[in-house]
Amino acid sequence: MNEVNARGQTLEEFLAAYDETQYRRPSNTVDMILMTISGGSLKILLVKRKDHPFIHDWALPGGFINFDEDMETAVQRELAEETNITDHTYFKQLYTFGNADRDPRTRIITTAYLSMTPEENIRNTAAGDDAEETGWFTISKITVHTGDEGRESVIRMDLPEKNIHMIYDVTDSVRSNYVETRSVLNPDSNARLACDHIKAINMAMDQLQHRAASTGILFNMLPEEFTLRQAQTVYEAIIGRTTDTGNFRRDIRKMLKATGKKCATGGKAAELFRFNPLYSFLEEKI
Amino acid sequence: MNEVNARGQTLEEFLAAYDETQYRRPSNTVDMILMTISGGSLKILLVKRKDHPFIHDWALPGGFINFDEDMETAVQRELAEETNITDHTYFKQLYTFGNADRDPRTRIITTAYLSMTPEENIRNTAAGDDAEETGWFTISKITVHTGDEGRESVIRMDLPEKNIHMIYDVTDSVRSNYVETRSVLNPDSNARLACDHIKAINMAMDQLQHRAASTGILFNMLPEEFTLRQAQTVYEAIIGRTTDTGNFRRDIRKMLKATGKKCATGGKAAELFRFNPLYSFLEEKI
DNA sequence: CTAATAGTGTCTGTTAGACACTATCTA
DNA sequence: TAGATAGTGTCTAACAGACACTATTAG
Predict the structure, then answer these.
(1) Shortest Cα distance from A163 to chain B (angstroms)?
(2) Cα B220 from Cα B91, distance rounded (Å)
(3) How far A133 CA sits from the closest chain B CA (Å)?
(4) What's this model's pTM, rounded to 2 decimal places?
(5) How many angstroms separate the CA of A267 from the C1' of C5?
(6) Domain range B27-211, its CATH number among 3.40.50.720, 3.40.190.10, 3.90.79.10, 1.25.40.10
(7) Each residue of B67-83: pLDDT tens digit?
(8) Domain formed by A224-281, architecture
(9) In this structure, what are the phi and psi dihedrals at residue A103, rounded to the nearest 5 degrees?
């Protein structure tokens, strides 16, 4: 069909006349929250900025979306650049941050993605063009108090080998029909995050903690075959507290299938399992 | 502090030299999924496009984000333009769609917001510059089958007074570590949605149905004071099926406070309630 | 044997679904 | 009174938290 508009233009004529240069436009970037488990702790990749703005602050890895590039392609490209991960790694869009004044260079709208990978997939994490250095920080979010009026939590990011500590106090306050979240840098910190990156990290931790028990999200940080103890360690690193071994095993086994193989590590040989993706991965959608 | 970068620039010098015109940039828009309840049915506002591209297709209301405008401000401006809603109406960011080829004009990255309001807040819904007409379509998402390998659902959007029907068959298929969602227009339809708008609508229905029972989200479509029967009607319109009255009342009362007032409508006078925002609105965050 | 790790069984209080029932209003 | 709408009580199966217990390996 060769439909015309009110000015008598066909689609082809309309597109030929379309002027995209009449308005000033924002720039679009993707930021990645890349997590893994190492030494029983949850880790996040951060890069130290070597240029303005936010010079010398720690930031989420990310970069500009090319004009002709799908957003997911940009994420995969950045993942490969930052970590040499080329296999298909799990990632999921988290949120888009677009306050007009969030970056002093120009209007920058950024979409944050949450990504996870088993430790052995990470081959290198070279500092890119924009980074002085990179570091896998241990990260935890501990909820100190939950009540009717809100919640108080603490997010810690530590790089012990360089003695870097960032601590943010996060409060969620119940308002009339929404929840207001504020994050402030705790004075015991000796470094800080660039821009509004703490907001994305906070959302990522909420998502991880919320979904850890009911979805298969934690298996993205485990190798193909793993023991129940390994799974529990990852689970506990995510939720930031220990959990009952019996109950954990009882509940997680419905998501798994046994391999029949064993793996000995100093005590009784442990059975190896795989994730069974047929187990209600649909929760993932929400 | 007057930190300098590797080229010896202060922040001020860096910003003065920053050239934002060196790359071609996407355009950014917001799209709104505006829902209400009317006549016991869930309704969504759609506009019929009167220009290319997607001429004569039905689309989500939305528009460009001004260069100096926060995204939330853009949403509120569009809401006011489309419906004359000025009071603070609930809205929540859903997802950002940014495939490189989703719009033939230029690269357009759009962020979809889910918004709800009680019917009486909607004063007019005039067709704007881009719209031939607007319509409040009844909308439902019914899940036909759920199994280990995925889920099949049907989304219906109907405007009975103009005899317009749009039906989409939606399948969620479990893959190795993610869920693939596909939506196809059912041939019984006599109209269709523009662009990729069915994706945003599908996500909105998932969110609504998922959160309807556990959060206070449904109260955004009710007046300040309401009866339990009204609340149940809204709940059933969202989830697309009836539910047990006794169980619904038992479970919802923890989110409410009684007003002591009554409201008679043909049978026994019903008690009026208000939403108690102190009841775990935190779920909302996830 | 001990220490270390892996793994099981069971009690109990809470919750979600099913369903039968009672109460108050108008005409 | 009937018909309509509002509202309650109770049984049961499933589930989640707490916790005490057994099993297999290395040295």
Answers:
(1) 22
(2) 9
(3) 14
(4) 0.93
(5) 4
(6) 3.90.79.10
(7) 999 999 999 998 888 77
(8) Orthogonal Bundle (1.10)
(9) -135, 130
